[in-house]
Amino acid sequence: KELDELQHHWNTHYIRRSRHDTLPGRPDELYFLPENENAVNHAHTIEEDKYHDMLNYCHEYHKESLYYEYFTHVFTLGGFESPNTWNDALTLYREILGVAE
């Protein structure tokens, strides 16, 4: 919920013109409608069979990671609870690192 609120708040702001490599506009609009700011949308569709082929070849790294297994084990044994806010997540991260050290 807090991340959704942050996203909404962030997207109410306008990125102004800059002499650097940034486009002006609202973040969501720049992402979903780059053509509105004379930018190029580099997204393209792929055939469904190619998508399914890639699912067989590409695996999520974290599921096979020893770090993922270890910290999941620490999380479970430590009786930690999933965070509800970014501040809780940061506190949890620090606590788990303390256990790991």
Automatic annotation (TrEMBL):
Q: Which domain of life is it from?
A: Eukaryota
**What is the protein name stated in its UniProt record?**
Uncharacterized protein
Q: Which organism is it from?
A: Paramuricea clavata (Red gorgonian)
List the lineage, top down: Eukaryota, Metazoa, Cnidaria, Anthozoa, Octocorallia
